[in-house]
Amino acid sequence: MSSASDKISSAQEDLEKLVGDLRGLLSSKDLDSLPEIRQLRKRLDESVYTVRDSAVRAAQEAAHQAKEAARVANNYAHDEPWRVATAAMAVGALVGFLLARR
To answer: Taking CA atoms, which of 23, 31, 80, 91 is between 20 and 30 Å from 17?
Structure first.
């Protein structure tokens, strides 16, 4: 899960760097008189807001799904403790067997 959040954070940093570079390019005083540049700045700001909003919603949805999966796993472990214990023991035995063969 941390890998996904690292990727999201990295993508967000890249996006903000790109936006910063574009704003720096478009902030030239020589370009202030051009209506196209004002329009471009406005569209850029709107797009950044939209992308940030979408990223926040995606992160919230991912967190909600992770919490739901954890809740379901917790409920299953409490409802079926012997199955969980048996599965854990089987996995442990398999790992032990594989490590013993080395």
So the answer is: 31
Q: Distance between CA 56 and CA 33 in Å, rounded?
A: 35
- Domain boundaries along the sequence of the chain: 2-101
By the 8 A CB rule, do 26 and 41 touch? yes
Question: pTM above the 0.70 mark?
Answer: no
3 conformational bin, left if phi > 0, alpha if psi -120 to 50, beta if neither: alpha
What one-character-per-residue DSSP string does the chain give?
-HHHHHHHHHHHHHHHHHHHHHHHHHT-GGGTT-HHHHHHHHHHHHHHHHHHHHHHHHHHHHHHHHHHHHHHHHHHHHH-HHHHHHHHHHHHHHHHHHHHH-
Model pLDDT for residues 14-55, shown as the tens digit of each residue: 877 887 777 777 677 677 677 887 787 788 778 878 888 888
